[in-house]
Sequence to fold (265 residues):
Amino acid sequence: MRVPVTFGQYVPVDSFVHRLDARTKMGLVAALTAALFLVNGFAGLLLIAALVALAVVVSRVPWRVALRGIRAVSLILVITLVAHAVRWEPATVTLVRIGPLGIDAEGLRTGVFFGVRIIVLVVGTSLLTLTTSPVALTDGLERVMRPLERLRFPAGEVAMMLTIALRFIPTTAQEAEKIIVAQTARGARFDEGGPIARARAFAPVLVPLFVSLFRRADDLATAMESRCYRGGVGRTRLHESTMHREDWATLVVGVSVCVVISVWL
Fold:
């Protein structure tokens, strides 16, 4: 039983997207998210989906890795589609009717629209961690939040915590997979019974999983203390990230395209 996790993983490939500064990709992801929630029609949504597909091709990230995160939200997609499409005693003309339940054409269209929006959002945001190393992501987050340091906001510490949390997502999934395999070898069954029975079957997995996570966190804290980590104050970097002309050009073009699509479509 594999746990499909994309967030927090990094695919080391030499591509134009990988070479972009982390702040550039954060700005593009923010513009993409805003545009997705502002478009009202399929034309704008499909255009944004085409741009995300182009970004995946340019990044040279395998499609099976880029689309892996969709499986994690498959239940949300099904609930979204059913909640909009199914009507109880619908007064409008339905496509299919089973007793008092019917599938409304307009509701089905709305469900597909929101489902596609979720898929594009998951794939687009996944590219940030798939094409940015944890070190570069930490540096980018810290630099983005640096103006808040004037208000005594611990930008360096918060950036480090966010990056560690992202990095622990695939680690947690791998650890859960190992525990599930071990429990299955001992006779446990996770695919039998109804939803409640299956949820109860995962209870023996949670205790060793949390114990393992706390042990990893303690080891990480010890390693950071032994390397004299004291937050962002006085911290030096091996590689200083700078925004080059291609970063500014990509950011301006990407944000402009997202603004045009969200306004006109």
Summary: The chain has two domains: 1-156+240-265, 167-230. The chain has twelve helices and three strands. The CA atoms of residues 11 and 191 lie 32 Å apart. Residues 167-230 form one domain.
